[in-house]
Write a structure and sequence with these properties.
InterPro entries: DnaQ (IPR006054), GIY-YIG_endonuc (IPR000305), GIY-YIG_endonuc_sf (IPR035901), GIY-YIG_UvrC_Cho (IPR047296), Ribonucl_H (IPR013520), RNaseH-like_sf (IPR012337), RNaseH_sf (IPR036397), UvrABC_protein_C (IPR050066). The protein is built from 19 helices and 14 strands. α5 (153-160) packs parallel to α7 and α12 packs antiparallel against α19 (537-547). With 585 residues, it is α+β, with helices and mostly antiparallel strands. The longest helix is centred in the C-terminal third of the chain and has 29 residues, at 447-475.
Length: 585
Amino acid sequence: MRRQPDQLGKRLDLDSVRSASTQLAFDDLGTPLERVTFVVVDLETTGGAPATHSITEFGAVKVCGGETVGEFATLVNPGVPIPPYITALTGISTGMVMEAPDIAAVMPSFLEFVGQGPDTVLVAHNAKFDVGHLKAAVTGLELAWPKVRVADTLKLARRAFTKDETPNYKLGSLARLCGAAVTPSHRALDDARATVDVLHAILARLGPLGVTHIEDLATASDPVPAARRRKAAMASGLPHTPGVYRFIGPGGDVMYVGTSINVYKRVRQYFTAAENRKRMAEMVDIAESVQATSTATALEASVLELREITEFDPPYNRRSRHPEKRPWLTLTDEPHPRLKATRGLSFDQMDAALGPFSSLSQAKRVSELVSDFANLRTCTKKLPETPSQGAAACHLLAMGKCAGPCIGAGSDTAAVSCVQDILAGNCDTVWDAQIERLSMLASQERFEQAATERDRLAALMSVAQRRERLLPLLTAREIIATAREKHGWEISVIRYGRLMGTAICEKGEEPPDVAQRLAESCPVLQRPETAGGAAHIEESEILLKWLWRPNTRLLKWDGERPLALARRSPARRQVPRQIPLPALN
């Protein structure tokens, strides 16, 4: 059993966090290029267009670790005369291919020669030409294209060699530059052999720049500064497991926190053209090291990432930097209450509050909608139970938008009761009224106002749905759940919306037994005083998403609210995006 202590996010105290129980093998770091099988191919054809021209000759060399392990060569009868200019270029005439096998006989043998292992790379010089003809032939024969990577020595050479070194990037010029043992002759096997030597020279040139594994080939030809590629060495030693990584700046400060199911592979991507975000490129250029924490599960890594972003406030993280700023909407505690947005909601008030909102502006939008619908007062002055002499009402009373409790014009009991019902998640009456209003505005072609009303309704339904899903989690004393993954059963213990620990049920163990030991080893967590006081709402939302996955199973639920949606749930409503709306029945 492996578990993660609740003390996630202690400042770079990696010793306090449980590391993976398995030792990393070299395979975990990706496939080194010396262990990759390269199948270098060259074709001769009747012309340049795959759709209208045919292959006349195959030449392929299979190499691994710098050694040739096989060759494939054959002429092909294209079924049509070979144009004279092709014969002049390649020396292949129509008479030479008369007795040669046709493409239907050659292609299956060639595909068998290539293979389709995950560590196989098909290589060609100007691969667009050769691979284009190969794919056209495979498609015409209704065969399956092998699942292999493709590398183009033309593109790679442009990254490896400068224009001062070679007049151009034709195969003949590169073969002379690289000292190829075979001179290209426009015959397939000779050209393939020359391309092998060019490939080896390219890889030798790009190796010090960080192109050392098969995963690097995909972006090796993209424009990445050499200094950044060299920094790929910072990924060495990072785990091949789920976890959190931190880019460390010159002063030892955390510049960026991220997470991945494979930390090593994700970090290496930052040093390739796969990372095209300007801010991230700037951060990588500044960073001096990368530190990582291995976790038992991807869920644990996501939670640890959030907690560390909150703790370190890294300058290059844009999301999750202030997850604590999530307001709720509730009624004020006074004789004639009004709606207010607050970030200090008590635990006991959650049943009578709507939230958490993603922003204060969203809370304000919903507050205006609910107050308008219920005719609840919106003035901020605290009103006594009995109106004072000389009190005057505002314009909302005259507009029928308020009961006027400030002057005793009417009772606001019905308005308060209506709002309380909405805060509890019962939004049907508001929904019906707003849908009718949207239809009316659309019929009057007042589309801008209709869009505003639609957005207010969407904000209400969104937060009502979030509340319905989150409240069971935030109020549950303990949840123990398990999810079946490829590597086994993942088990999590959650209390009051906070992840307390995770474990993986190893082979031969029973999930309930592992779950019990995990729960007993987790620290005690008292009921929080405030809503979401045990963890930031964003952490609870991460856990909620995991709990609602189809492959997650509950082992224990200690709480009053079930993890389920009511029949009349707000989740059954979807705000229409199109205006005008369809006619109501």
